[in-house]
Amino acid sequence: MKHYVIRCEDGQFTLDRAKYDTIKELIRVYVQEAIAIDNQGQVRIRQPVPLQKWELTHAQVTIGAKLGEGAYGEVCRGNVGGRDVAIKQNHMGNLNKEQIKEVMAEARNMRRLVHPNIARLLGIAALDEPLLIVMELAADGSLDSYLKKHGAAMNDKKKAAMCQQVSWALCYMKEKKILHRDLAARNCLLHQGTIKLSDFGKSQPGPAYSMDPHERLPIRWLSPESMTSLIYDYAAEVWSFGVTCWEIFHDGAEPYPNMALIDVGLSVSSFYI
């Protein structure tokens, strides 16, 4: 498999030296005249494959104000086709092949997930830098931030309803045989009272996943058996759900307050038999 990039230069599109006003015109010429697209003259376009509906161009995406920042990069408000959206864009410059593979794996997982309590993937713009992941907009932001601001004014019934919505998302993901692996209040979004599970960068197919010992792990949300065996499964997901419920009822506070990560790991893993 080879990857050839169509570039935009001065408003025109090119694969090498010749420039065309539209990508459609470029493809038509290369197909009809059987022009080689590699330096050796061995590769030609026989049957072009059009973009899927979820494959966007950067020209279709308008990026607005910054909403937040995570391990992947910035999350900004934006607009696509007149719809307000959230846009994740990397802050690592040009991504290497392994990083692109990870991002696309996250996108493939999200495309399979269609549920009221899961943040919906709307599209990806991967034809240029930076790579953009376009998602539905959650107007109230991350759940942990919301709880820190408004949690004290919420009653237990409302907090229990939030926990219930997170559980619905997890049940649906188990039906789809996908492990989230990073469940926490910070990775849940809130939109007009509806919880939406988000951030699928660590997601893997279930029912179990062998973790890399050098991988950065969410220790405060990790189960005792996962810390010890480095195996993550649906039972470990339930443990993370329990910690997330604790966060909800403690107004977004950090689990195991006033404890260093190493102390949390030693204390929790001691419960594993």
Description:
- α4 runs antiparallel to α6.
- This protein has a five-stranded antiparallel sheet.
- The chain folds into three domains: 1-47, no CATH class; 58-136, Phosphorylase Kinase, domain 1; 143-269, Transferase(Phosphotransferase), domain 1 (Orthogonal Bundle).
- The chain has 273 residues and is α+β, with helices and mostly antiparallel strands.
- The mean pLDDT is 89.
- The radius of gyration is 22 Å and the shape is elongated.
- β2 and β3 (19-20) form a beta hairpin.
- It contains seven helices and 14 strands.
How many strand units? Answer: 14
Counted up, domains total: 3
Q: Supply the number of helical segments.
A: 7
**Can you tell me the CATH superfamily of the largest domain?**
Transferase(Phosphotransferase) domain 1
What is the typical, i.e. mean, pLDDT? Answer: 89
Give a nutshell description of this structure.
With 273 residues, the chain is an alpha+beta fold. The chain has helices at residues 23-32, 97-111, 143-150, 156-175, 224-229, 234-249, 261-269; strands spanning 7-9, 12-14, 19-20, 61-69, 73-80, 83-90, 121-125, 132-136, 178-179, 188-191, 194-197, 204-205, 208-210, 231-233. A hairpin with a 2-residue loop joins strand 5 (73-80) and strand 6 (83-90).
Throw out a few tags for this protein.
3 domains, 31% helix, 3-stranded antiparallel beta sheet, Transferase(Phosphotransferase), domain 1, Phosphorylase Kinase, domain 1, 273 residues, 5-stranded antiparallel beta sheet
